[in-house]
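Open question from group meeting: does this chain pack into something compact, or does most of it stay loose? Before anyone orders reagents, we agreed to write out a predicted structure and look at it together. Recording both the input and the output here so the notebook holds the full record.
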Amino acid sequence: MTLLGTDIDGCVLDIWEVLNNIFKRDHKLELSYDSISKYKIEECTGLSRDQIKAAVDEAIQSTDIPIYKDAGYYLREYMRDEVVPFITSRSKRHNNETFLNLAKYFPINKLQLFCKGQFSKGRLVRGLGLKYFVDDRVSNVIEVVRENPGCRVFLIDRPWNRYFDEKFFIYKGMITRVWGWRKIIETVREESGKGLRRTCAV
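Structure tokens returned:
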């Protein structure tokens, strides 16, 4: 039974490194990771929404997006035994690049890719019967807990999700903020009675 699903960008793949290189090349703009305090990057820069969209479209076509170090260890270790659906807001037209990028880090036979398209992430989580879900966007985790009251949802800490509006606090008890993949995998394994194979200080 598949238990755990996750978003991709900002959770597993560090797209910010690729984006920042595009901003430097095209706009002579270099931004620190911590300066991106909002999910809508245009609100943290002098760039327009169209400029941001063009940069994001180019970035997600890359098959060289680096993985977050802790995801590279803990999630990959978990996927030696378990299938994990990756649920993304990326367009289906980028499926090939996305799959190739993920396949560099994870076993292909344990990797499933779903683009939300016309469905919400909450609906996809429900349809897959997931018990745990990981995302970096506050609106996404709220959507998932609304549509899946029994699902344990993790908000992985990033600079752009440290500001909440009051809607978040209504669901605070159903959402767990975590600072990395070790806590996520330990929780899933402990609650499912499978335990960790081994631990590593990442």
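Observations to bring back to the group:
Helices lie at 15-27, 49-60, 69-78, 95-103, 121-128, 138-147, 166-170, 181-191.
Residues 198-202 have pLDDT under 50 and may be disordered.
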